[in-house]
C-alpha cells in the first residue's frame, strides 16, 4: 500500500465518520422537531382559563375543602377534574423531560416553580391514591419525577447558568386620583 492509498483510505474514513455524526444529529433534530408541537400545545394549555381555574382550585381550595385520606379518585367532580388536569399537565412535561424530548434547561425554569407548588398541594392525595390502588403503577410518577428534578436544580440561576437582568425599583408614582386638581 502506498502513501496515496493510505491518504485515500483516511479521507474515506473521515467522510464516513462525518456522515454518521451528521445523520445522528439530523435524526435527533427530527425527533425533537416532531415533539415541538406537543410542547407548544402544553404551553398553550397553561394560558387557558380552564387550566388557570384548575390550578387555582388545587392551590387554594383543595386541602381546605377535602381530606387527603380519600385519595384522588374519590374526590367530588370539581376537585377531581382540577386535580387530574394539574397532574396531567405537569406529568406531560415530566414525560418529555424524562425521555429527553424536551430540554430540562428549557422546561424547568419556565414552569418548575409552579409544578413544585402544585405538588405540595396534591402530594398527600397522590400518596393516599397510591395506597388505595395498591398497585405498582406509580400514579402521578412523572409529575413527582419532574418536581424532583426541579427541586434538585434550585436555585435555577446556579443550575442552568441563567443570568437574568433585574430592574431597579421605581419610586411610587402619585396616583391620578391623588394628584391635586387644577382650578
Structure description:
The structure is a single chain. The chain is elongated. It has helices spanning 3-47, 49-60, 62-65, 77-98, 104-133, 141-152, 156-160. The protein contains 7 helices and no strands. With 183 residues, the protein is mainly alpha-helical. Helix content is 71%, strand content 0%.
In short:
With 183 residues, this protein is an all-alpha fold. It has helices spanning 3-47, 49-60, 62-65, 77-98, 104-133, 141-152, 156-160. Helix content is 71%, strand content 0%.
Strand content: under 5%
Topology pattern, helix = H, strand = E = HHHHHHH
DSSP strand count:
0
Indicate the overall shape.
elongated
Q: Strand count, sense and closure of the main sheet?
A: none
Q: Characterize the quaternary organization of these chains.
A: single chain
Average pLDDT score = 85
Layout of helices and strands, plus pairs?
Layout: H1 3-47, H2 49-60, H3 62-65, H4 77-98, H5 104-133, H6 141-152, H7 156-160
Amino acid at each position: 500500500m502506498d502513501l496515496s492509498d493510505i491518504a485515500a483510505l483516511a479521507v474515506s474514513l473521515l467522510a464516513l465518520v462525518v456522515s454518521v455524526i451528521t445523520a445522528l444529529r439530523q435524526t435527533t433534530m427530527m425527533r425533537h422537531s416532531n415533539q415541538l408541537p406537543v410542547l407548544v400545545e402544553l404551553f398553550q394549555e397553561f394560558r387557558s382559563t380552564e387550566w388557570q381555574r384548575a390550578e387555582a382550585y388545587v392551590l387554594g381550595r383543595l386541602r381546605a375543602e377535602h381530606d387527603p385520606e380519600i385519595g384522588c379518585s374519590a374526590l367530588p367532580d370539581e376537585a377531581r377534574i382540577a386535580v387530574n388536569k394539574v397532574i396531567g399537565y405537569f406529568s406531560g412535561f415530566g414525560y418529555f423531560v424524562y425521555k429527553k424530548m424536551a430540554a430540562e434547561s428549557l422546561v424547568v425554569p419556565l414552569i418548575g416553580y409552579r409544578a413544585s407548588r402544585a405538588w405540595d398541594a396534591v402530594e398527600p392525595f397522590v400518596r393516599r391514591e397510591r395506597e388505595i390502588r395498591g398497585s405498582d403503577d406509580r400514579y402521578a410518577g412523572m409529575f413527582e419525577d419532574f418536581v424532583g428534578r426541579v427541586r434538585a436544580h434550585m436555585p435555577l440561576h446556579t443550575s442552568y447558568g441563567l443570568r437574568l437582568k433585574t430592574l431597579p425599583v421605581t419610586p411610587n408614582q402619585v396616583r391620578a386620583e391623588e394628584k391635586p386638581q387644577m382650578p
